[in-house]
Design a protein that fits this description.
- With 134 residues, this protein is an alpha+beta fold.
- 28% of the residues lie in helices and 31% in strands.
- The protein is built from four helices and seven strands, in the order H-E-E-E-E-H-E-H-E-E-H.
- Strand 3 and strand 4 form a beta hairpin.
Length: 134
Amino acid sequence: MSGVTDLSKLIKSMTPKLNKGAYVFTTLKNANDIDRNVIICEFKEAEGTTLILEQNKADNLNLKYDYIASWITLTIHSSLDAVGLTAKFSNELAKYNISCNVVAAFYHDHIFVNQKDAEKAMKVLQNLASSQQN
């Protein structure tokens, strides 16, 4: 059940997938009244609870947000012990002036990029993966 730790294999096989939809980050002092079924990710910080959810669901709940993102999943099962994957793809995206917000879950890494950069980010990630094929 453990994931891949070899950086070269992770890059070669990361196979980015662009998920459909628009996603937003919002923060609330108290998220207890939000149905957990609409939340993609939740992280508690001292200042409040950050939620990531679909834009239309945030709109329906009248939640405030500034940033509309696209969600890319790296479909390889990366280990939480893997070293260098985030640095490798985030540095590559930075070369093209693409900001990324990363969530590492048990099976996959998830990258949220500005919606306007989604297609460009996919190309950058695909090119990075294919550059490791040689």
